[in-house]
Automatic annotation (TrEMBL):
Signal peptide: none annotated. It is found in: Membrane. Belongs to the sodium:neurotransmitter symporter (SNF) (TC 2.A.22) family. Residues 717-741 are annotated as: Disordered. It is a multi-pass membrane protein. This is Transporter. GO terms for biological process: alanine transport; glycine transport; L-leucine transport; proline transport; sodium ion transmembrane transport. Na(+) binds at G74, V77, N81, N339, L468, S472. The chain crosses the membrane at residues 68-86, 98-119, 140-168, 228-246, 253-272, 300-321, 333-354, 456-482, 494-513, 525-546, 567-592, 612-637. Keywords: Glycoprotein, Membrane, Metal-binding, Sodium, Symport, Transmembrane, Transmembrane helix, Transport. GO terms for molecular function: metal ion binding; symporter activity.
Length: 741
């Protein structure tokens, strides 16, 4: 050490000096920064510094705030907003369902979304790095998030592949699913029996698209058309994310905004269709008694949970590329409400179109049953006296049929069932709830066949689905690549391409003829319970281990204002309680519901519930166990010091801030960072047992803010030693607050 250094000068003056981090880094180059929360010393009369992480740490950044918001919106707004939310709304009381959904969005949705945005932005790392910082013993949270992202990405891109196939099939008139195919046997032409027993759109989906087998045990080999569609889907995703946010951010300008253009076009067109008002009125008619059912609240909580993408790691990854002083609270509220309003818009569109379809199907039902009645009249099975005089069979309205049906049912009470007449009620058609692939690839496609210029609307619809899925896949892939690229020095482009290639080959499981059954299996088991466990551990690690008060202080330093006090109670009590109830309900639901799938039986041309065979049942539980396995493994490994706690992998910005603090303290010769005899061992002075007050201030500063080793108590404590001065007042250090504030 040079003789003119300050540390050497103190040693020559026989002043007692303890070996410190400051001594080791005394000659580090001073970095340009503004302030840091680690500077617990200071000069009297000066303003207490605020946290600011250097912006030039080499980490990629969003080109604009709009690009970032569109990325978060694109990730959170996905296929579930179009085909899951409307189904839940219809099933659980129409407009009444919006009440529990809105309440749970405010209680668990926005607070937890805000929490993920804040930790990602503060620590500027992916999911693995973030939870290694907050609590290394719970570092498995990030690994579990990554694994769930992998499972979901495998089957989610298959759905994009299906949409790509339908997109290209839409460039023909008439649409290929508008009519049943004709089977010719010499001069005899008959309708395909499987199609005749179901419908043209159902047949096209199950037979011509999936060519599905009757059970999950029958593989049937690869479906070539779906394999090529999946390959195209992975090429698109790879090109979108190959350069990180530099490429995906630009894609988001289109993929996030285009679905709204299509939804508004569909809404305007849908409102012009006959029966659209009936569908919307049916959707918004509240069934208040449904609000008292626990199942409704459980499904609302699950939808809130997955609609915002909580626990996947994509939210944290996107926010880690933000500036440190970005207002993430505003972002959380904005994105949450955009997501909610998008679900409402999609529901209006779906029910407007389904209302039109219900009217078409109801009129078809009236015509078919009127022909039956005419046959019974001509064969004298029914008397002409039963037909009201004003009924005209050539222009039979639904009200006339309902009147005629009521008269016949009353008179022929004993033998009415043998007539085989149907009531043809519009309400029955509207109550036929469909979701997921049944809505997108069967019900909606059938409705579009009745649209004028149906190929145009079909192209628009499936192009919208592709963009919705692409936005979610970009977030999912970012949740996988960002943590790995943060932790290991690998080439971004090469790693992304390798991920996509491996995912394509693993995804071949889903493009077998039985692949749709595996999509259902992964959707039911790979994400639900594991993600709920991940999110409650995220909540607990921040609110109870890191400390809610400490986290609120970090937010105040970062945002420049203190968030509303309600977040303190939501993070500490309400959200954990809601998540525990949700986990319990999910486990109970899995226990009482027989594990199985809906198999398509070709001979009957309908679905039938089948239980999973033993090997498939083992696969279901393996998905849950493998996704959650990193949680106990990492905890045990770090508890017994079998794994590094990750403290040697601090982000560049975090290290620069720490070194700047130390450099400042050395230059000012006002205080030191004293290292105890062992990591985490504090000096014996009273100041070592608590927080500290800046000179001339009564504000207590937390010396453990965002310490990567806080779970172990092995973080290096920073303690100020003020030079002796006759005019200096003595500072008493308050007792340290408990760890979980």
């Amino acid at each position: 050490m040079p003789k003119n250094s300050k540390v050497t000068q103190r040693e020559q003056s026989q002043e007692h000096v303890t070996e410190s981090v400051a001594d080791l880094l005394a000659h580090e180059e001073t970095l340009d920064y503004k302030n840091s929360s680690l500077n617990v010393g200071g000069v009297a009369g000066k303003k207490v510094p605020q946290i600011e992480v250097p912006e030039d740490d080499g980490r990629p950044a969003w080109n604009s705030k709009l690009q970032y918001i569109l990325a978060q919106v694109g990730f959170s707004v996905g296929l579930g907003n179009v085909w899951r939310f409307p189904y839940l709304c219809q099933k659980n009381g129409g407009g009444a369902y919006l009440v529990p959904y809105s309440i749970l969005l405010l209680l668990i949705g926005i607070p937890l979304f805000f929490l993920e945005l804040a930790v990602g932005q503060k620590i500027r790392r992916g999911s693995i790095g973030v939870w290694n910082y907050v609590c290394p013993s719970l570092g498995g949270i990030g690994v579990s998030s990554l694994m769930v992202c992998g499972f979901v990405g495998l089957y989610y891109n298959v759905i994009i592949g299906w949409s790509i196939f339908y997109f290209f099939q839409s460039f023909q008139y008439p649409l290929p699913w508008s009519e049943c195919p004709i089977r010719r046997n010499g001069t005899l032409a008959i309708v395909e029996p499987e199609c005749d027993k179901s419908s043209a759109t159902t047949y096209f989906w199950y037979r011509q698209t999936l060519n599905i087998t009757s059970t999950i045990a029958e593989s049937g080999g690869l479906n070539v058309k779906m394999t090529m569609s999946l390959l195209v889907a992975w090429i698109i995703v790879c090109l979108a994310v190959i350069r990180g946010i530099a490429s995906s951010g630009k894609v988001m300008y289109f993929s996030s905004l285009f679905p709204y253009v299509v939804l508004f076009c569909f809404l305007v067109r849908g409102l012009m269709l006959k029966g659209s008002v009936d569908g919307i009125a049916h959707m918004f008619t509240p069934k208040l008694e449904k609000m008292l059912e626990p199942q409704v609240w459980r499904e609302a909580a699950t939808q809130v949970f997955f609609a915002l993408g909580l626990g996947f790691g994509g939210v944290i990854a996107f926010s880690s590329y933000n500036k440190i002083d970005n207002n993430c609270h505003f972002d959380a509220v904005l994105v949450s409400f955009i997501n909610f309003l998008t679900s409402i818009l999609a529901t209006l569109v779906v029910f407007a179109v389904l209302g039109f379809k219900a009217n078409i199907m109801n009129e078809k039902c009236v015509v078919e049953n009127a022909e039956k009645i005419l046959g019974y009249l001509n064969s004298n099975v029914l008397s002409h006296d039963l037909i009201p005089p004003h009924v005209n069979f050539s222009h039979l309205s639904t009200s006339d049929y309902a009147e005629m049906y009521g008269v016949i049912k009353t008179v022929k009470e004993g033998g009415f069932a043998q007539l085989g007449l149907e009531p043809c009620l519009l309400e029955d058609e509207l109550n036929k709830s469909v979701q997921g692939t049944g809505l997108a690839f069967i019900a909606f496609t059938e409705a579009m066949t009745h649209f004028p210029a149906s190929p145009f609307w079909s192209v628009m619809f499936f192009f919208m689905l592709i963009n919705l899925g692409l936005g979610s896949m970009i977030g999912t892939m970012t949740g996988i690549t960002t943590p790995v690229l943060d932790a290991y020095k690998v080439q971004k482009e090469l790693f992304t391409v390798c991920c996509c290639i491996v995912a394509f080959f693993l995804g071949l499981l889903f493009v077998q003829r039985s692949g749709n059954y595996f999509v259902t299996m992964f959707d039911d088991y790979s994400a639900g319970l594991p993600l709920t466990v991940v999110v409650i551990l995220e909540n607990v690690s921040v609110a109870w281990i890191y400390g809610t008060k400490r986290f609120m202080q970090d937010l105040e330093d970062m945002l420049g204002f203190r968030p509303c006090i309600i977040y303190f109670y939501l993070w500490k009590y309400v959200s954990p309680l809601c998540l525990i109830v949700l986990i319990s309900a999910t486990v109970i639901e899995m226990a009482i519901s027989p594990p199985g799938y809906n198999a398509w039986v070709q001979e009957l041309a309908q679905e039938r519930f089948e239980s999973y065979p033993p090997w498939a049942l083992a696969m279901c539980f393996a998905l849950v166990i493998v996704a959650m396995l990193p949680l106990p493994v990492v905890y045990i490994a770090r508890h017994f010091n079998l794994m590094s706690d990750g403290s040697n992998k601090l982000s560049v910005s975090y290290r620069k801030t720490m070194m700047k603090d130390i450099s400042n303290l050395e230059e000012q010769d006002e205080s030191r960072f004293i290292l105890g005899a062992k990591p985490g061992e504090a000096p014996s002075s009273a100041a070592a047992r608590g927080g500290f007050l800046t000179p001339g201030s009564t504000k207590t500063l937390d010396t453990n803010s965002l310490s990567p080793n806080i779970c172990y108590g092995t973080s290096y404590q920073n303690f100020p030693i003020q030079p002796q001065s006759p005019h200096r007042e003595s500072l008493q250090s308050p007792e340290s607050p408990p760890l979980a504030s």
